Each structure stands twice: as structure tokens, then as C-alpha cells.
Amino acid sequence: MSDIIDQVTRAGHTVAQRESFLKLAARHWRWLATLAVLVLACCAPFQLAPFRTFQLAMAMIYAIALVGLNLLVGHTGQISLGHGAFFAVGAYTTAVLMDRWDTPYFAALPIAAAVAFVLGFALGVPALRLRGLYLALVTLSIAIFLVPLLKRFETWTGGSMGLTLTKPVAPQWSGLAEDQWLYFLALITTVVCFLLVAGLLRSRVGRAMHAIRDNEVAAEMMGVRTAFYKTLAFAWSAMLAGVAGCVYTWVIAFVSPDSFAVGLSITLLAGLVVGGLGTQWGPLLGGLFVMYVPSFAQDVNQAAPGVIFGLLIIAVMYLAPNGLAGLAGRAARWLEHLLRKGKTNAR
């Protein structure tokens, strides 16, 4: 980065040209950082113990759910406290398909995603009339009544006892252990979901969502169909949560109603805020936070893990109001400022 800045400055380019070069260099650095993360992710299951591999797989599952929640909250400006309900819908759809009808686990994924999409669309239509706290309360109510609803239909859901399944077996040609195979299933699904959302946000649909988030009235006056895009945002967000629930069922091989209590929805929203609303890396950082911080809090004090978890959230919000992704962005800008200052002093 410093070499590029030096070359551009010596060439005598204008300020606009220098900024253009800097943006291009920053884009290359982002691609290199993404590639480095992927390489590390591919190497991780061969270096870690099976339990640590399982934890990373769970972090990626939460990241899938959070990238959908980020699409709704961070990029469209809506609010949801019931995202765990769609997570449960994907998990139970997969579990019922695999347990009752012996559906192959790969075939269960698009069905779980479709069911969650339809339910999200159905919720998005009445949610058009609601905003702010009213919308938050409606989505929260969905997460609250889901648990007793799952317990009621014992024939299908297994009631309070849940359903126990068989984990996907690694193909012989892969040469992978069971935990490694499940990890790569989670990794591939995560990468595909992130790429799909990134492409969506760069399209006209993404620009419409950002316009609704910034100023809904102005967006409608400019011809943006706010009702249509807000409903689609709910549906796509629910679909990605359903995909996360499906992969969760593959990895855990067990579902029970108590695993999807209202606390899951609140934890997911807190993880997204901590990771960084409306950012590219926020869902991934939030997934790591949701997975590892409760475990860390449990190790510190088994009597009060919730207190430690809450204090850590407060500390992160105080130190990084824009989330961990925003903190990383500030660090990058600070480093760039130091490089510029160093080059100026050297001349």
C-alpha cells in the first residue's frame, strides 16, 4: 500500500486520481485478505482437534443465519427479534424429512430453504404496516410461541424429546473424517451464501434496499417499490436462516424445541450488532462471537455466564460502536494515515 501511494504521489497525479489509485489498492488488499481467510479456513480442520473443528463449523452456521439477518436489519433497515424461529423451521424441516421420509441430506437443503422463504414472505406482508418497536414485538412473539408449538405436534417433532438423526457420512473418495466432512459442508454453504448476498447487494435490488434503509419516504418518491423489496428482504432473510438451520441439523444430528428458545433470536441479533451492522465481515465476526464468547464466559465463571456475556457485549459496544468490523476498518484507515504521514515526512 505504501509503495503505491509513493508512486502515485511522485507521478504528480491529481487528488482525484490518487484517491482512485488508493481505492483500487484497497480493493486488492480486500481480495487478498479474503483469499487468506479461505486458505486458513480450508487448513483449519487438518490442524485442530475434532471438537475445535465442530466449534468452527457452528460459528459458520451462525454466520449464515447472520448474513440473512444483516440483509434485513443492516441493509434494509427493518428489525427482527424472531430470527431464531426461521432457524428452527429450517432445522425441523430437515429433521422431519430425514427422519420420517429418509430424504437425502442434500435434497433436504433446498426444501428447508423454500419452506423458510415462504414463511418469511408470509410474515413480511403484514409486517409492512409495522415499524420500529411494533415490528420488533411481532417478530419476538413468533419466537416465543414457536417452542410450545413444536412440543405440541409430538408425532412429527418428537415433542420435548426432540429428534435424533444420523450424521452425514463422508464419502470414501474424500478421505475425510466425519467432523472434517461436516466442517467442509458448513464452509461451502457459508461461502455460497456470502457470495449470493454480496452479488444481490451489488445489484439494483441491493441499491433499492439501501435506499429504503436510508430514507423510506424518499425511496418511494424515487419510484422504489418499498413494499415489494421489504417483503423480499424478510423472505430472503428467513431463507438464509432456514439454510443455517438445515446445516445445523447435519452437524448436530439432533433437534429439540428448547434449542430454539427466544434467547437464540436475541443472541443472533446481539451477535450481528457486535459483528457490525451492514458490513461485509460483520456476520462472520458475529458468528465467531456467538459461538466462542458464551463458551469463554462459561469457562471464566460457571455460575454467571450470562453476566459475563452481557458485560463483554457492553465492552465491545463501548470500544467499537460500529461493531468489530468497524473497528477493523478504523484500524486500516489509521494504518493508511500513518503510511501517508511517514511518506510526507520522508520527503
UniProtKB/TrEMBL annotation:
<keyword id="KW-1003">Cell membrane</keyword>
<dbReference type="GO" id="GO:0015658">
    <property type="term" value="F:branched-chain amino acid transmembrane transporter activity"/>
</dbReference>
<feature type="transmembrane region" description="Helical">
    <location>
        <begin position="231"/>
        <end position="255"/>
    </location>
</feature>
<feature type="transmembrane region" description="Helical">
    <location>
        <begin position="104"/>
        <end position="125"/>
    </location>
</feature>
<feature type="transmembrane region" description="Helical">
    <location>
        <begin position="132"/>
        <end position="150"/>
    </location>
</feature>
<keyword id="KW-1133">Transmembrane helix</keyword>
<dbReference type="InterPro" id="IPR043428">
    <property type="entry name" value="LivM-like"/>
</dbReference>
<feature type="transmembrane region" description="Helical">
    <location>
        <begin position="181"/>
        <end position="201"/>
    </location>
</feature>
<feature type="transmembrane region" description="Helical">
    <location>
        <begin position="54"/>
        <end position="73"/>
    </location>
</feature>
<feature type="transmembrane region" description="Helical">
    <location>
        <begin position="261"/>
        <end position="291"/>
    </location>
</feature>
<keyword id="KW-0472">Membrane</keyword>
<feature type="transmembrane region" description="Helical">
    <location>
        <begin position="29"/>
        <end position="48"/>
    </location>
</feature>
<feature type="transmembrane region" description="Helical">
    <location>
        <begin position="80"/>
        <end position="98"/>
    </location>
</feature>
<keyword id="KW-0812">Transmembrane</keyword>
<dbReference type="Pfam" id="PF02653">
    <property type="entry name" value="BPD_transp_2"/>
</dbReference>
<dbReference type="GO" id="GO:0005886">
    <property type="term" value="C:plasma membrane"/>
</dbReference>
<protein>
    <submittedName>
        <fullName>Amino acid/amide ABC transporter membrane protein 2 (HAAT family)</fullName>
    </submittedName>
</protein>
<dbReference type="InterPro" id="IPR001851">
    <property type="entry name" value="ABC_transp_permease"/>
</dbReference>
<feature type="transmembrane region" description="Helical">
    <location>
        <begin position="303"/>
        <end position="320"/>
    </location>
</feature>
